[in-house]
Description:
Helices cover 31% and strands 26% of the residues of chain A. By secondary structure, chain A is α/β, with parallel strands linked by helices.
Amino acid sequence: MLKVKNSTVSFGGKKILDAMNLNVSDGEVVALLGPSGCGKTTLLRFIAGLEKGSAGEVHIDGKDVTNLPPEKRGVGMVFQNLALFPHLDVAGNLSFGMSQPNSEKISEMLETVGLKDFEKRRIDRLSGGEGQRVALARSLLAEPTVLLLDEPLASLDEDLKTALAEDVRKILKEGGITAIHVTHDRQVAAIISDRIVEMDAIQPGED
Amino acid sequence: MRKVVFHTIPAVLVILLVIAPFIIALIRLSEASEVGIFEAFSNLDNRYQTSGAIGFTLKLSAISTLATVAFGLPLAWWMGRYHWPGHRLIRALLTTPFVVPSMVATIGFISLLGPQSWLSETFNLQLWHTMTAIVIAHTWYNVALVVRLVEPAIARLDPSLEESARLLPQGNKAWKRAWRLWWPVIRLNLAAAATLTFVFSFTSFALVRHLGGPGMYNMERAMAERPFTGIIGVGAVDSEIVLAFGIIQLVILASALWLLTEFQRRGKTWLPLATEKSTRLPLVNAQIPKLLMSLAILAAIAPLYFTIIGSFSIAGNFSTQAWYNAFSTNSEFTLLQPLLNTLRFATLTVLIAIPLAWLSANSVATLEKQEGWSSRYARVLDVMVMAPFALSAVMVGYGILIGLSHISNSLLLVWWLPLLAHLIIALPFAMRVILPAMRSLDPSYLEAARTLGASPFTVLFKVHLPLLRGPLIVAAILAFAVSLGEFGATWLLWNTPDWTTLPVLIDRAYSRPYDPLARSIAHVAASLLLITTLTLFITAERFRMAGQEGEF
């Protein structure tokens, strides 16, 4: 269970998030939908601890993590630009988040995301869709309590986007993973999520 | 709170290392000079040691800059415009002089232009102890800068710009395109190269000392050769001279550096660029460029060739005696100890300068993105680390010498005194390589690592350092090479044989005109420095990130 309570984040005196509230139940996949600049990414970064807020709290599984650094929150994030480490190969990227790197688990995960035998592949040799899958796999192997996805499908062409969105949905649901997916694409939101939250519709005080 | 302390460390270290000694030195100099600062300025022209030095320095720097632009611009144009066979090798040869230590260049030019040199005997050229000799050496050094900064601007301009200019009335003739298209494209890079040339010529010491001969003093040399500077009582005149020159130098160098950052800021790619391969024209029937380019390459390597050749001859006869003596323990000018000293200082410089540059660059890159005090602090820290660029090597030496003696005279004999100078001089070079790389690194790599559960320590060692491996290696090589070739400050601080580095040894050996063996050993030392420096820079080129070719 993820709870964001009354959270405010501002840059340069301008409020990007204003007394924001959001609840996500265990195993639920929520899509945050809204135009660019409405604060979707900022909310994810606030939940992950990458952005400090001037007010508000984040609770994960009943525990207040507001003052914990990102690495201690149990939150995983797939970045819009994927942020795959270019100096490591696919297996190196995948093992990065594992407390005990284990090649069997890595192969299993690669099979799950449809990238069998990709262990030794260099990051710059991956296609757009393959990169998305590696980034997702890397986050999942860290076994996060909540997974945050920041428009990871945005740069793909339409057909691939729809196909991959279905795959992501399947992987998230099979693993029973709590996730927030940020997007400005209504179709992707509909495919991936159990519930769509319109970002500009979240008002101060709303649950 | 921990973060505040973390970001304060580099500033404190830089203040202690760089700023404080210099300020203490200025205070001490004004105490020792016994006259006010304005009197010190007005006395400069009345004293025989300094009269005319300001005018000479400005004239020397201005003529050197003009000559450098006049020779460098055509070379940069031909390099950027045409595809030459062995293009990379030609560029490497043309830009080699810039990385050669000043003492090595000095030796090279003495053997090229000095008495009994091949040039002076064959063509009856009397350039020894003239300003022309120094201008030639400065031009030789800095043409590399013009090529390095201007060539990429010419080579990478999208060719469709010139094609469309050809079809328009204002660009249908070559001179119109030169004026309306090419001049705007290159002028800021050229201005940056000219400014840097002026700065280097302005603070030239080794070349002026040895090529200029007894009567020729620029400000840097006039300051360096004042043995009583900073000593209360006997050092009044010396202190007065160094104080006045030091302040004038600081003002001129700081203005030049400000100009340089302006040129570089405004020159940042507003032009549509293409890859270099697509733009260069094939080299057909360009006889004059071919001839002049060959001459330029010969000129670039001639002093280096004569440096090495000189190590195999004693008083004009072939001999390997100098190499033998250089590495035997019982000769007066053995190179063993100076070589070890040089390597020790260079290694320690790298070991301290790189972590400090990393810390500083990290603070600047992190804090400049934030608001309010953080970003202002980042700017101040950036300027402080860069401050040594506005000091000449001799002023850095005086800063340390006088600043530390003010604290305690016993500090003047500590073994790390020259190291301090090398550190101050190398730090801004390292920073200039690491900071842009850190700025251009996508922060999401570090953030991704943290959301994967990595501690700050793991992020540093498994992500941040490996991602910046290339720039770090380049910075380390640069710091090492700067320390290896440093002459002005080390020469000024020299106190015990334990501090004799190869450049200092060359100076001492060359100051004994009656001793041909010592001169040949100086050539051996210069050859060692030259070969090491060239090897280092060839290695560094391999680690440069794409897009950094136009930097040093």
